[in-house]
Amino acid sequence: MQGNLAAAAKDFSRAVDADPNVADAWKRRGQTRAALGFDQEAIKDLTKAASLSPDHEYAYLTCDFFFQRGIVYHKMMDFRKALTDFRKALNIDGSSPITWNFVGLCENSLGRTREAIIAYERATQLDPNMKEAWANLGQAYRDAGDRQNAEKYFAMAEKLDPNYVHCYHLRGLLFYGCGEIRLALHDFSRGHECDRNDKNCFLMKAVCKHSLGDMSGAISEYTLLLKMDPVRKELMVAAGHLCYYQRELAIYLQKHLDVNLISFNADVELDAYFKESYCKRDPTNHPRLCNYIPQKPATSKIPDVKMVDKTGVKEVDELVELSRRFGPLIQLRSAGFLSNLRQHRMCGLAILHMAQQAKAWWQSGSTAETVANGSRRYDLYFDVKGSSKDCGKKHAFGWRDFMDISVKWRQISEPNDPVFWIDLMAPEVFAEGFGLQTPMVTGQMNVVRYYPYFERARDVVKKLIEESGACNVHDQRFMLPPNKIDQLREAKTCQDLWEVMQQGFYVETPCHSVARPGEIMAGTRITLLQKPPDGFDFTIRTPGTPPRWVEMDKEMAHAWSLLTEEARRQPEPDLDRFTDLALTFYFYWVNFGPLSRGTAACGYIAFFALMLSIGIEVQTSPPEGTQVDWPAILSPTPAGFIDEVKSWIYPSRKRCDILETAPAVGEVLATPRRMLEALNCK
């Protein structure tokens, strides 16, 4: 086929040479060059074709030239230029559903879901049988966080073509993102049945089984998937995840299904280089993995987790019901965030678990008489063998052991995410400053979830540059010339900032210490880099280096010490002071960013748990449009952050005695099997 295309390109070149004023010859050569991967040459040819066809004489031809060039720009991921061309084509002929569908694809790729929805709707009006437009419409609603409409339009695509694999994959991802793992499994299985060679549905089918605790099924699926391409398995990527790593994790989890959670820790037991490579999605022949010893083969002796609507165990079912009270509090009411029922369940159970263990720790410093007069005594389910701190060395229950609980819940509830403590990654990557990046802008896309904080982050960047300069990509600090300051102050977009700075750079937000008054630590990095074509990466990135880890560990330990002291105050803690300390704990946690993923969620779970540990229930989720971690990250002091959020947190605090009667999570859900059974209940 490539040979035929190359020959065709030569033929069209001869036609162009014979008569350079024939627009169609330029167009045909442009199309052929695009098919051969010579995109820049294709753009030149199609541009020439358009210039030879005045709109008033050959409107239909000009329309096609713009459409064809738009397709090439779209292929090049230059969505702005592609959108401009598709809009030009529609100005000539607005009746093309295919062009409207491409407009929707471009708008969605720019992060403008509302405009994408309008375009897809127009495409479906012009051609109600266009399954691609219906599926894309469903995807746009999914990206906006609207499950109801997403389901509605995916169903339209399925109705038009019951064998439409792409639709099953997209809807499966919707259900997975909503925590409806069984529904997701059904769609991925259906997609795989329709096309046995589709690796996207096949992998996610295995991931669903993994999530539900069908370990033998998941491991079998992962193994079959790897055999589909045994020579290049390290490159066989589906849905952005590598099958090899998932299988290793599934085998590990299977062996620990019935092991008490307090006696093991995946972060300690899994190979550090394996974790690094999994986070980075490295190929399995990467040099970092040269000494990695794979998990021993799975065993058939360990039964899979039972799939039941209710476990029939009174205490488990009671905890599941209680989790419904707390889990939804974690839900963000912001664009792009789907309501994830499984994560609600996980959060609710983790809040109860952590609250009980925190209360047990508070009680451990009180006399038996005091506790008896106050409330129920809890056992502290803690063993250093299951701690991520100090590799199992003896130590008292501390802030990290408290946070280990939420990390373990996150790891078990969502095996598709690499959630690990950064200091337990490979020493080289820890020294380099591995950290989670959260983009507000990536390429040409304004990221739906995080772009709402762009202006605030941009203003922080401008202020810091003016006060103390910035660092280039080589970590060299430089100051902005005085004659550039006015231009900096006027900058509104990434392009404006780039024109001022003329290079990639980052600034570090200040983070004021409470443990060491007067000390100012490096908070998070806000980075601006160019990203071809014609785009930027504007991100927050929290580097987890050893020196920074030492500093932040002191802050977390200090906050934990103050929380402990206040919780043990007699006759009872001061509510406002304890609340502020819990928010301070959260502030340093998210500025610390100690996890490869999931830092914000684990921290917010911890806040609710800390409040519940002293008998206080916070009865509201963040206000619409608010993501609690961003104000914390962009504030230099805990006090500034607290002032911003207490207006809605303080009034929502209510007395709650639920811990007096709730079953002990650490006892009832002591193993991954029991945790998964609780997560799987309807």
UniProtKB/TrEMBL annotation:
<feature type="repeat" description="TPR">
    <location>
        <begin position="63"/>
        <end position="96"/>
    </location>
</feature>
<keyword id="KW-0802">TPR repeat</keyword>
<dbReference type="InterPro" id="IPR044650">
    <property type="entry name" value="SRFR1-like"/>
</dbReference>
<dbReference type="Pfam" id="PF13432">
    <property type="entry name" value="TPR_16"/>
</dbReference>
<feature type="repeat" description="TPR">
    <location>
        <begin position="131"/>
        <end position="164"/>
    </location>
</feature>
<dbReference type="InterPro" id="IPR019734">
    <property type="entry name" value="TPR_rpt"/>
</dbReference>
<dbReference type="GO" id="GO:0045892">
    <property type="term" value="P:negative regulation of DNA-templated transcription"/>
</dbReference>
<feature type="repeat" description="TPR">
    <location>
        <begin position="23"/>
        <end position="56"/>
    </location>
</feature>
<protein>
    <submittedName>
        <fullName>Uncharacterized protein</fullName>
    </submittedName>
</protein>
<feature type="repeat" description="TPR">
    <location>
        <begin position="97"/>
        <end position="130"/>
    </location>
</feature>
<dbReference type="InterPro" id="IPR011990">
    <property type="entry name" value="TPR-like_helical_dom_sf"/>
</dbReference>
